[in-house]
Amino acid sequence: MAKVAPILYGDRKVYTVSSFNRGIGSYLGRLPAVWVEGEVTELRRNEAWATVFLTLKDPKTGASLGVTIARRVFDRLGLALEEGETVHVAGRAELYEQKGELGLRASTIERIGLGAHLLALERLKRELAAEGLFSPTRKRPLPRLPRAIGILTGADAAARGDLVATIGARFPAAKVVVSETRVQGKGAPARIAAALGALAAHPEVDVLVLARGGGSFEDLLPFSDEVVVRAVSACPVPVVSAVGHEQDTPLCDLAADMRAATPTAAGSLVVPNLSELRAALDGSRRRLALAVRALLERDTAQLMRLGERLQTAPRLLLERRRSALDHMGARLHALSPLATLGRGYAIVRAGAEAVRDAAAVSPGDHLEIELGSGSLGATVEDVRP
């Protein structure tokens, strides 16, 4: 590598950015190979690339370091690395001159510590997800007012105290059934699954809380055990998982009907707040009273309208009937013979019979002539056909 030469400005030596980065890179290249431990993140591999890229992260501080390794070397290792696994990486420090970024050029990678657990959990997660155990369609709603809340936790657990205190403060009338069992170490998964089944079989338990406070990754492993996950999935009553802290995600969280970030948060999920419930009931009572009052006022107004109609109906009916009679009388009057006589016509009778034909009488016959007003007596003098 060519020597890095400065640019002279009088007695001042000035290096370009490229020269500076090249010099630092040259110095780093003389450092010995080292082993670095960290969690695998941002793993990127492509068949078209000659290099595999990943980032090592320090879980305690969040510090990160970029790592590159030849793809053929990475493939030959056959690690099938997953995000979050802890590994040891052997390599030399290097500087990417173009951007001045420090990295590690790896020669090999070894999985260590919890990496095997993480890999096994990831595989189990995929298998159970494929069976549908984590499907959102399987999630059940929590009961609004459970008859009793089942709490499954470890002996002398702070989580139990927080949960019971929260439930009591929110809804003092709530009934709590507590089951204590072993929640970590050998045999814990079987104990948890058995206790879960026993609690669910309680005749009054309508919802169950699986609670455990924070702990290390190893402490929380029983809650990711297949036996426990399947027991949570098969539980006949809804299950709230409140295991670990918010950043912890054991597999039982995925199988539960609802996840709570903390045991205290779980208490807020399983029972309503009494003051809020009373406020809601008061609001419902006020709305019901307003609705009844409005209905009463509407029916009262309707009855008043009906009363007014009943009072006016006979008069209107009588007027309609009188008008109809008057109309019929006028029609009868128009059809009456007297109306015809009033227009100048007359009825001629010979005896009791009306005369319709002149040939029906003879000269000298006596006739009665009825007029519109009065009548006349007459004698036939002449008959003209």
At a glance:
Helices cover 41% and strands 25% of the residues. It is α/β, with parallel strands linked by helices and 385 residues long. It is elongated and about 170 Å long.
Characteristics of this structure?
elongated; 385 residues; 41% helix; five-stranded mixed β-barrel; alpha/beta; 11 helices; five-stranded parallel beta sheet
Question: Layout of helices and strands, plus pairs?
Answer:
Blueprint (H helix, E strand, L loop, with lengths): L6 E3 L2 E3 L2 H13 L4 E11 L6 E7 L6 E7 H7 L8 E11 L4 E11 L3 H17 L16 E6 L4 H13 L5 E5 L7 H13 L4 E8 L4 H4 L5 H9 L4 E5 L7 H5 L2 E2 L3 H8 L3 H62 L1 H6 L4 E4 L2 E2 L11 E5 L4 E5 L6
Parallel strand pairs: 5-7, 8-9, 8-10, 10-11, 11-12
Antiparallel strand pairs: 1-2, 3-4, 3-6, 4-5, 6-7, 13-14, 13-15, 15-16
Q: List SSEs in N-to-C order.
A: EEHEEEHEEHEHEHEHHEHEHHHEEEE
Report strand %.
15-25%
| Rg calc | 53 Å
Mean residue pLDDT = 87
Overall body shape? elongated
Stretches where pLDDT is under 50 for at least 5 consecutive residues are none
Strand order in space, largest sheet: 3-4-5-7-6
Count every helix, treating DSSP H or I runs of 4 or more residues as helices: 11
Number of extended strands: 16
| Helical coverage, percent range | 40-55%
User: Could you give a short account of the major beta sheet?
Assistant: 5 strands, mixed, barrel
Structural class per helix/strand content? Answer: alpha/beta
What does this structure look like?
Strand 6 and strand 7 form a beta hairpin. With 385 residues, the protein is α/β, with parallel strands linked by helices. Helix 4 packs parallel to helix 9 and helix 5 runs parallel beside helix 7. The strands form four sheets. A five-stranded mixed barrel has the order 3-4-5-7-6. A five-stranded parallel β-sheet has the order 9-8-10-11-12, sandwiched between helices. The protein has a four-stranded antiparallel β-sheet with strand order 14-13-15-16, with no helix packed on it. It is elongated, with a radius of gyration of 53 Å. Helices cover 41% and strands 25% of the residues. The chain has eleven helices and 16 strands. The model has no long low-confidence stretch (mean pLDDT 87).
